[in-house]
Amino acid sequence: MDSLLLSKNDLPKFMTELIKKNKVFAPVESNGTIIYEQITKPSEMNLDFCKSEYPPKALILNQTETLFKFTPGTKAKIESVDIDEKKIIFGIRPCDAKSIAILEHAFKGDYKDPYFLKKRENTVLVGLSCTKPEINCFCTSFDDTPASSKYLDILLTDIGDNYYVEVTNDKGKLLTKSMSQLFKPAKDSDIKKKKEVEKKAVDIISRHQKTNGIADKLDKIFEHPFWKDIAFKCVGCGTCTYLCPTCHCFDIQDESTLTKGARVRVWDTCMNPEYTLHASGYNPRPARTNRVRNRIYHKYNYYPKNFDVIACVGCGRCIDLCPVNIDIIDVVTRAGEVKP
Amino acid sequence: MGEKFEPNIIGFLCNWCSYAGADLAGTSRIQYPPNLKVIRVMCSGRVNPIFVINALQQGADGVLIGGCHPGDCHYERGNYLARRRMAVLKKLLEYTGIDPNRVRMTWVSAAEGVKFAEVVKEVTEDIRKLGPMQHFKRENKW
Amino acid sequence: MVDNNQLREAVKKTISRDDVKYVVGYEKGTYGFQTTPCFAYKPEDADKFIFSPLCVHNLSVFPMLEEKPPLRKGEEPDKRKIGVVVKGCDSRAIVQILQEKGLDRDKVVIIGIPCTGVVDPKKLEKMFPGHIKNVEVKDDDDKFAVTVDGKTQKIQKSELIPDKCKTCEYPTPILYDILIGKEIKSNKNEDYKKVNEFEKKSLKDKWEYWEKQFDKCIRCYACRNACPLCYCKECMVDQLNPQWVRRSVNISENTAWNLLRAFHLAGRCIGCGQCERSCPMDIPLMELNKKIEKEIREMFEYEAGVNAEEKPLLAMFKPDDPEEFIL
Q: What ipTM describes this predicted complex?
């Protein structure tokens, strides 16, 4: 791992160089909210934010993704789509970067999903440490910090006049090497400064989730009336799942006109009754209780069992935007306390 | 685009009046623009606004709904109900910036072949002036 | 100002009845200024019930959300009633549902609360960001008394209430079995200022505005699910055969969804603003709803959710309905 320094004044230069050679996606303010969009000059960026409402996972697991194109009829033809596009996501938060690492488990299992994996491989994650966590941030509950470089290729941390730059792997090195004149080696004092920034951010985080042994605990309370209590106020919309950076379910459909068509996959949500509806008309998850419980179990039980990691990064988006205040911190903490 | 724009218009015509009116226009050999593609429905009251929106999505530049004259509906009140619905839909389209003249409604009886041809002419010309529908047409770019 | 004790008494009394399954009300939420719907199954549960200007949800959606699982052989359906705590606007939703025969009057017990306006949570969060505990909002005449960490601040209501409350004509529930507190008369009038302003723009400007808004839509359908009047068994966007609206998220399908959602609430939307409040992408859906509301008031002299005996707007007609647009 390399520790470097990048002067704040040099950031636009660095970005301009990046934009010259790559497709760069960065946080942009649009209609009062932050979204990750392709930028053409550094001034379009807005780095004064906590998190985007729409998760940057959408740049790798697109909400609508074409799998292949076809022409129907007797001379049917199938045409593959180009997924080789290389890109850089700049300003991604450590929590969102972790989510992409979590998603990878699901897409590189027995079946290796070429679309996700290719895009993941072709993407360089240049992160930015979070200095002002919001009310519902709880990334520290998963042994992470708002300034953790673990899942990023490069992490920038604002330490006053400079950015403290951590380059964690070869992907990142390739970028910094090409512009080595902009970077200085970091001193011990800079590392100390970064630690201070990190600690300050950690201290801001005031909500915590008790996740100790939650996977085993959930095994024992599947049928507990507690779930009905939680789920009754759910209105069954897909906000929590669509905005969750680790949710990855999709629906595959064919779209076509008379002369051409494509197979597309679109995000789907397990909060929707149609998600599990069988062709026979039978629905194994008929009620909201089943569906809300499934969301929690998927993240805190099935995922840890399969991949040894909790599928929640603590970004708090689902809590922020749930119309009825179903609060995953509260739900999981209470689930830990329920008597089986 | 060097060629003249030829609008694509979908017509939902009621089985009992407007469709028969169109038939009469045909058998009487009255000329009218070929831009109208007719879909026969049993009643103008059958026309769900979803048909209209979907037609506009799929590449229609305009939609014409034809029903019986008030009081003449084969099902007594279908055309009255359609009238209310379309009045609201047109206002909604206008509010979102889509010219309400892309959605037209007409009463044509089975005996009004000439009127039918006139209406189609008028609608075609109006929509020709508006130009192609581009607001929310499906791009089918995959 | 609603007396919480009086509310809890009423809930207790209701839930003690043999023919009531449960009562839906509000309780304090898990953080900050949040409140959340809560359910009382036994009289003790009523102790957590509250009402404050933070109670923004429209609870009349819950009777419509009830799943009816298939019964086992010999099993009797649960015919007991559901109790609902409603504000003025929420009660109109129930009236509208009754009018459409989506619900039987004798299946609900309505606990009405005269409401002097709720707080827009987004505006409040902007004013007092990041507070997790010890916050409270109370009603104080033309102001809200906002308490944060022991310090109380009085803020003009006009700064915090959502648009729907600014022009609310029915602060007292139209329909109720029990009323908590006294009836309030409204001196406000719906003037459709925003709609009238927007109408003056050119078609091009209008589309430019809405294109940007619809482009944000992520099709989570929170607007649909939070709406008490969107209770179709199968929504047209979930339909597969024919599939009217594709699942792809792009401007074409998003526009189709948003237009049709607004249209399907024509003459039914009672203006509770749940769609807009729930929208995670902040699409101003109420502007569409208000436009339709205004037009039907002008064209058909009809207002949704005030008279359960009337026929639904689009299921009736008058011979002299406006038809100047017909060729």
A: 0.93
